[in-house]
Specification:
Shape: globular
Number of helices: 3
Radius of gyration: 26 Å
Structural class: mainly beta
Strand content: 35-45%
Low-confidence stretches: 1-31
Helix content: 10-25%
């Protein structure tokens, strides 16, 4: 009995010591760094840890970010066929010369041949997302890690992407477009008129909010490599004349202050928009020749049209009830309409435009018969043919398997609260 009481007293003492140490530790931590809204929402300190940022590869494997045992982040390769995993890029390989630890990976992408890795780090918020930061390239063949951007200011690069052959990286910095050769380090500036009001390769608040914040295909990225890597297509927005909306910040300092954001209210001046193509080696931009008021029409989507010769874009009026699918010649700027969607209320822009048969046909989503259905259209806009199930709204296009001739999608027949998996033949 006496020994048991002694053990109980000992455990009580140990528990109290742990409580005192824990409380003291929390007090010290709070004294060193107060818990603030900025610390909670702007830092990664309270983010859930685990597997993140899945990147599927052409061979059916995929990579993820996982916490490294020695600190930092490993990039891990997963093989769904056999469940095998291995560390493809260890955190120890991502330590820049002269630094104590590895880069904090906030985004990453692979070159097509997987020989190079592009890392997004040291990010800063633009509008609602952290889309500005620093980019580093890891060459896996020689394990060389180098920063992209030359003498660009810290955390100033946006939307960096490998060229199709992986030898160059294009990016936006301070509202201008650049291309950097990863072999020589040469940087070519493609535009030189970027300013607070002239945005090349990126969007203003309205475009990001209205057209791109929910786009899973491209995000808020305002430029595109051509398939052959010879040219770049991009948006240019001119926000001069758009008045500032003053947002009031009452939380970050003792006295509130205003933050000006260019924002056009209903009926006021919009940003002027145009799209063009420029040689990736430098040269003059070829602007698409459109007979419209650039401040009262939108270019809501744009991609290359299955080659380096033409771009395809969606032209939308300000009322958003007439949408024209247009093809534009990359070398002359000549543009023409191949398909038109109209509605008494509004029409939706389409993300699921994919080219088939080497650019001979493309997929399209439309509500022209009262249901949101998938169509296949000839390149000139003729031969519009529905391929999805009748009397069912296509909710999400999951996989387009051209090799097998099928498209898989989620749709809601009859009742919008019920969703089902469908498969349709691309041949119709």
């Amino acid at each position: 009995m006496r020994q048991r009481r002694m053990r109980e007293r000992t455990w009580r003492v140990v528990m109290w010591v742990w409580v005192i140490v824990a409380v003291w530790g929390v007090q010290v931590a709070v004294a060193q760094e107060p818990l603030t809204l900025d610390r909670i929402f702007s830092s990664r300190e309270f983010f859930p840890q685990g597997i993140g940022q899945v990147r599927w590869l052409d061979d059916g494997t995929y990579t993820t970010l996982e916490r490294a045992s020695g600190g930092g982040t490993d990039i891990v390769l997963h093989n769904p066929a056999d469940g095998g995993t291995r560390v493809l890029v260890p955190a120890t390989m991502l330590v820049p010369e002269g630094r104590d630890g590895p880069l904090a990976i906030e985004g990453y992408s692979w070159s097509d041949d997987r020989s190079k890795l592009l890392i997004f780090t040291n990010t800063a918020r633009v509008w609602r997302s952290n889309t500005r930061g620093d980019y580093w390239v890891l060459d896996r063949s020689n394990r060389r890690l180098r920063q992209v951007g030359g003498d660009a200011p810290e955390s100033s690069l946006m939307y960096a992407k490998f060229s199709p052959d992986g030898t160059r990286v294009g990016y936006v910095s301070e509202n201008n477009l650049y291309v950097e050769d990863l072999r020589s380090g040469e940087i070519v500036q493609l535009t030189d008129d970027g300013s607070r009001t002239v945005l090349n390769g990126r969007f203003d608040w309205v475009y990001e909010e209205e057209f791109f914040v929910l786009s899973a295909r491209d995000g808020a990225d305002g430029w595109r490599w051509s398939p052959d890597g010879e040219r770049i297509a991009y948006w240019q927005l001119d926000a001069s004349g758009v008045r500032d909306f003053l947002m009031i910040n009452n939380t970050d300092s003792l006295y509130s202050y205003t933050i000006p954001v260019q924002y056009p209210k209903a009926g006021t001046t919009n940003s002027a928009v145009r799209v063009g193509t420029v040689p990736a080696a430098g040269g003059a931009t070829v602007w698409m020749d459109l007979d419209h008021d650039p401040r009262n029409n939108y270019i809501a989507r744009m991609w290359w049209a299955a080659s380096g010769d033409e771009i395809v874009f969606q032209h939308l009026n300000r009322l958003q009830n007439t949408l024209q699918v247009m093809l534009g010649d990359a070398r002359t700027g000549e543009a023409h309409t191949i398909l038109t969607e109209t509605d008494d209320t509004w029409v939706d822009v389409v993300d699921d435009l994919f080219w088939l048969d080497d650019g001979a046909r493309f997929t399209w989503l439309s509500e022209r018969d009262g249901w949101r259905r998938m169509y296949v259209v000839e390149r000139d806009g003729s031969g519009l043919r529905a391929i999805s199930a009748p009397d069912a709204d296509v909710e999400t296009v999951l996989v387009l398997d051209e090799a097998s001739g099928w498209v898989y999608y989620i749709a809601s027949p009859e009742e919008p609260t019920r969703r089902y998996l469908f498969r349709a033949a691309l041949s119709g």
